[in-house]
Amino acid sequence: MIKAAVVGASGYIGGELVRLLAMHPEVEITAITSRKYAGKKVHKVHPNLRGLDLRFTDKYDFDADVIFLAVPHGTSMKIIDEFLGSAKIIDMSADFRVSKELYEKYYGPHEKPELIDKFVYGLPELHRKEIKKAELVANPGCNATAVILALYPFRDIAKEAIVDLKVSSSAGGRRENVASIHPERSHVVRVYKPFHHRHEAEVIQETGVKPMFTVHSVDLVRGLLATIYFPFDGTERDLLRRLLMYRNEPFIRLVTDKGGLQRYPDPKYVIGSNFVDIGFAYDAENSRAIILSAIDNLIKGGSGQAVQNMNIMFGLDETTGLSYYPVYPV
Amino acid sequence: MIKAAVVGASGYIGGELVRLLAMHPEVEITAITSRKYAGKKVHKVHPNLRGLDLRFTDKYDFDADVIFLAVPHGTSMKIIDEFLGSAKIIDMSADFRVSKELYEKYYGPHEKPELIDKFVYGLPELHRKEIKKAELVANPGCNATAVILALYPFRDIAKEAIVDLKVSSSAGGRRENVASIHPERSHVVRVYKPFHHRHEAEVIQETGVKPMFTVHSVDLVRGLLATIYFPFDGTERDLLRRLLMYRNEPFIRLVTDKGGLQRYPDPKYVIGSNFVDIGFAYDAENSRAIILSAIDNLIKGGSGQAVQNMNIMFGLDETTGLSYYPVYPV
Amino acid sequence: MIKAAVVGASGYIGGELVRLLAMHPEVEITAITSRKYAGKKVHKVHPNLRGLDLRFTDKYDFDADVIFLAVPHGTSMKIIDEFLGSAKIIDMSADFRVSKELYEKYYGPHEKPELIDKFVYGLPELHRKEIKKAELVANPGCNATAVILALYPFRDIAKEAIVDLKVSSSAGGRRENVASIHPERSHVVRVYKPFHHRHEAEVIQETGVKPMFTVHSVDLVRGLLATIYFPFDGTERDLLRRLLMYRNEPFIRLVTDKGGLQRYPDPKYVIGSNFVDIGFAYDAENSRAIILSAIDNLIKGGSGQAVQNMNIMFGLDETTGLSYYPVYPV
Amino acid sequence: MIKAAVVGASGYIGGELVRLLAMHPEVEITAITSRKYAGKKVHKVHPNLRGLDLRFTDKYDFDADVIFLAVPHGTSMKIIDEFLGSAKIIDMSADFRVSKELYEKYYGPHEKPELIDKFVYGLPELHRKEIKKAELVANPGCNATAVILALYPFRDIAKEAIVDLKVSSSAGGRRENVASIHPERSHVVRVYKPFHHRHEAEVIQETGVKPMFTVHSVDLVRGLLATIYFPFDGTERDLLRRLLMYRNEPFIRLVTDKGGLQRYPDPKYVIGSNFVDIGFAYDAENSRAIILSAIDNLIKGGSGQAVQNMNIMFGLDETTGLSYYPVYPV
Predict the structure, then answer these.
(1) Which of A89, C171, D2, D144 has its CA 20 to 30 A from that of A179?
(2) How far apart are CA B238 and CA B224, in angstroms?
(3) Which residues of chain C does D171 touch, with a Cβ-Cβ cutoff of 8 Å?
């Protein structure tokens, strides 16, 4: 059994990670931490986990083979020294995902730049081999995961891409905030960052494509859809052929149906799973491609991907503890 | 033109009141107050009101014929001295709705008990005559409005009633609060007060019936439904006959259809209006009645009723500025 | 009083039109038609209208100064002969919005091509003068309204535009359809027509810009947002300056705030009103503009605009019976 | 491996059953049937199951150890002869849940009354031993499951109970129906059967308590909450003590917390799982109890319970293939 600890387990990503680890056949959770909830049972914070016998602690003296840092951006770099060397680390914040240059452009000053190069970018579909050997993995952002996987097969031809994202409220985390209360956040199509989003940094690093992100909050609790537009001089078959690079990926489903309702990816069809659904459309008249990419932002966009990375790092089958079909309808 | 001021105009009840007053043909808004937003345009807080040329002030030196206090419970009694005598007052808090005894049982100590008797309880369907002469009106609570109007015709026979309420998130106000953020508050059926709710006090006072309120938060932004159960030894026709006391009420719609989908009140059918839809069912086998009552909690359960009271107090037709059919579907 | 008849009043656009006309101070509704519901009271179909004393008829022998055709595409051209000459006509279907060539490209064969030129395209902001004199007006589509108003000020520089639309379920009409039932249609971000949508025809005709529409169904009952991308070599101020052509329009609100939550249009802020909220963003680094345009699809995208056209055609103030601030939050 | 066939696999209950069986470690699915979709891949109907290699068939010549009948009420009794004797049968319709007398009172004439007694009522918490030996199991209804488990511990004292149910749209099945389309079914609190619901028959049979069901459709895709009121002369501790009969049940979670948000069951906390959350409140002043019971209607209220029954019938650990924590937030 792999002994796992989750640092910062009171947020949505942390809670989802505890859920996945609790059901994972090769994992024993040895600690979940939270300053605010130290001493409380896990179900006081994550009511779905009632019956799971775990309490939050605020001590870092746990015994772990792998430590997940599910803390906010900027916090990982402050606390990581406590854990370095004691266990493999999977960091779910943005702190070690991109180069110092990109980090400082998109996020601000970095306090541990010397560590960045020691981290592997934890997108298994692109970096499986390096992850296998890694001690330190930086788990990708949710928007970045959806967009990188969609754009990667086209990185040689798409110089820039318009990325119109539709995201759910759980991506905003579990913070009190008037703009996030139910009366305000329900029934919106709210643009909160036209043209610029910090997850762009990861896309640039991984694909070389210059994305223009416009993020729209929509009335979903979970899930995200990326609609990606770029010029493409080819055929529909060319689009498909490039996407077929993913044909053996266990968590990528290509949506290539020609009839019926489900011809395009929809976050509704991936909720509760680690799948990425990728589909496409081609406009021959205007030489334009659209790639569509849908994920559950808390799973493939967070905790599921972290477990996938753990599986690889520990030599397990990559799908262990992750073979869940989505819950539908929900 | 009636000069109206709204004190505490940044909440949902306050915002809805400003909207209704801005469209009222006989009203001129002379001030809207907010400490937090003083100096800001109204649309920075209520984005639906973009185009309405009003700014919040934190001064109370306005010129008004009627002052609406749209402040939290406990605040009205603290600030009311500033306004007494200068204008008619419609208080939308709970501070002056019930007797000192009931207030102290349900809310706690009262700081201005000597004023309570000077207020008229502002439910026009029951107190139209007193409201007409009143200088001070206490506007009813949203749950209380729905329940009192439903129970009043049965007050002589229903000694106690089970009141199962389904309420929307706007009733909780515009406060930051983790339990209210969209991921937490969406898709709930959340009981937050089994058996006891402060609005019971008003029901007891107005009907003499002892209600047992159980409030369930459901996934609505607006609207509420009360499902009220009590023993009844009679016939369906008896139920209807008693409800017909409301037949000439401009804002009560009796739902008595025998076929189709819309045989029972539903908050969906009253959104954006000042209507109360009241319907019923009778279980002869068990001698049980159900009365159903649906309102828009921010309008008939708050601002609309306040405007209705104002109309009566100023001798206008009671429906002036309130003759809106509900928006449907929404 | 203007005598108005609504042909095809059982759908959402028809129901909303009846609601607006019932509250219009200068209108008397003389007939509402429906084959399916002939003889039934209006509230059996539109439960919000309980209390409005109207019944559906299936006869066309009504007395009307203006006839609204709220029937499906393809039906108006079949029935219009019954009404020609007897009254002014406002057609809410697509049948007479665009030239025969565009119609046949986007919709199929046209049965009354000789009538097309007699219709004025009923977008008041662009065709007020012609509407004033018109006997026959073709009311624009909902997506087209939002997109045309957003693109028109840029028609000389935007040759093509990527139009990413987020639309609500009421736009799909009131038809039974498995894909539309609540369990299937809730929580989707469903692409149903990448790159091609019939409302493009209107955009091409009115602006000359070639739009690439991708329509996403989102979890809204009402409202739509258009996010429109095009290359722009200028400054943010240039963008604003062009939009200021609308500064005196009664139903266009420019969203130009620099701080706060409401810096961009959101359908949530226009529900229940005839407003179009238009905003923008500029990406200087990439020379790209975004124009955002939000409407209530049943009002400015349908019935409200029809009433606005009627007001103009009958010499009334354009805002008569339409001066409603949006309902918020809802 | 247990060979399993699902007859009628295109509905929501059927789809959820296929999902659970596909992830079950001891099951091989040998057939899924549908007349309408014969020949189609499972994901054309259940898009969440993309990647699962199964096609619908309309033949009944499959090889199965257990056959699940996921067909509408009235259909099981018509087709069951085809399967009798060939395999164990778990019927998910209402056809064999209750005695002939109750069936005919609540549903109408029964075509196979002689078979009713051969079926065991498949509520494992009450009938585990009989299920273990059964060849034929009648899987309970969703509302009945929630209500029976809540009332059973009080069957000696509660002669009658008011049962106020809040149910989701997936309980209505996957049928086209104007009343179920998204614009109509969103944001409702719709009473569709005051006082009478067919699931009462099961409650009467299993508990002897006379329930008065009032079912309210609320804006949920999944989940249900039962709020059950009855007179109780005791103490809060008595209530708890009776519920403790379930303390060793693997799928019942007693919600007995005294602080925090999660003091009462909420369907939001059980989605995607086979759990029943049961909680309570006591009103000493009025000698009234409330029992609250929340389930995922498609899992513990349908497919999960069917799998639980299968596990028992085949001597597996009862939780095999069902140990999923709920997905939260969703």
Answers:
(1) C171
(2) 26
(3) none
Share of chain D above pLDDT 70, in %: 99
Question: Rounded mean pLDDT of C242-254?
Answer: 98
Furthest CA-CA distance within chain C: 62
Return the domain boundaries, chain B: 2-118, 142-295
Distance from CA of C246 to the nearest CA of B (A): 13
Tokens of A196: 């610029």
Let me know if A65 is a catalytic residue.
Answer: no
Could C195 and A330 be called an inter-chain contact, meaning their C-beta atoms sit closer than 8 Å? no
Name, in order, each residue with C-beta under 8 angstroms of C65's C-beta and a sequence gap of 6 or more.
Answer: C2, C3, C4, C87, C88, C314
Tokens 């569509």 locate to A292
Among A64, A70, A142, A313, the active-site one is A142
Task: Name the residue with tokens 């029954």.
Answer: D309
Q: Which site among C106, C160, C164, C187 would you substitute to test the A interface, given the most A Cβ atoms closer than 10 Å to its Cβ?
A: C187
- Specify the CATH architecture of the domain C2-118: 3-Layer(aba) Sandwich (3.40)
* Candidates D168, D177, D187; nearest CB to C181: D177
Q: Which of D243, D215, D211, D202 is nearest to D230 (CA)?
A: D211
| CA-based nearest residue to D225, from D178, D183, D171, D175 | D171
> How far are the Cα atoms of A275, A304, C185, D99 from residue D271, in angstroms, in the given order?
19, 18, 18, 32
Side chain identity at residue C311, one-letter code: N
In the numeric block, which tokens belong to residue A183? 């009366």
Taking residue A85's Cβ as centre, other Cβ atoms within 10 Å add up to: 7
Asked if A160 and C286 come within 8 Å (Cβ–Cβ), the reply is yes
Average pLDDT across each block of 10 residues of chain A; the chain has 330 residues. List them in order: 98 98 98 97 96 97 97 97 97 98 95 97 98 98 98 95 97 92 97 82 96 95 98 93 97 88 92 98 90 98 98 98 98
Report whether pLDDT(D259) > 80: no
CB contact under 8 A, C177 and D177: no
Number of helices followed by number of strands (H, E) in chain C: 10, 14
User: Does CATH place domain A142-295 in 3.30.360.10?
Assistant: yes
Neighbours of chain B (3+ CB pairs under 8 A): A, C, D
Residue position matching structure tokens 């010129």: B63
Say what the pLDDT of residue C197 is. 79
DSSP per position, B253-270:
EEE--SSSS-SS--GGGT
The pLDDT, as a whole number, for residue B259 is: 72
Which residues of D have a catalytic role annotated? 142
The answer to whether residues B272 and B326 touch, using CB atoms and an 8 Å cutoff, is yes
Of B22, B43, B261, the CB nearest to C262: B43
Q: Half-sphere exposure (CA, 13 Å, Cβ side) for D228?
A: 33
* Chain C residues close to A221, C-beta within 8 Å: 187
Q: What is the CATH number of domain A2-140+299-313?
A: 3.40.50.720
With a cut of 80, say whether residue C196 has pLDDT above it: no
Taking an 8 Å cut-off on Cβ atoms, the answer to whether D23 and A323 are in contact is yes
> Which chain D residue shows the shortest CA-CA distance from C173?
D183
Dump the DSSP string for D92-142: -SSTTTS-HHHHHHHT---S-HHHHTTPEE--HHHHHHHHHH-SEEEPPPH
Alpha helices for chain D (secondary structure H): 12-23, 76-79, 100-106, 113-116, 124-133, 142-151, 182-185, 200-207, 236-243, 304-313
Q: List the chains bordering chain D where 3 or more Cβ pairs fall under 8 Å.
A: A, B, C
Between strands A160-167 and A224-231, the pairing is: antiparallel
The chains found to touch C (3+ Cβ pairs under 8 angstroms) are: A, B, D
Q: Which of C190, C212, C288 sits opposite A283 (nearest CB)?
A: C212
User: Contact A155/A207 with Cβ under 8 angstroms?
Assistant: yes
- Nearest Cα of chain C lies from the Cα of A49 at a distance, in angstroms, of 24
Q: Which residues of B touch C43 (CB under 8 A)?
A: 262
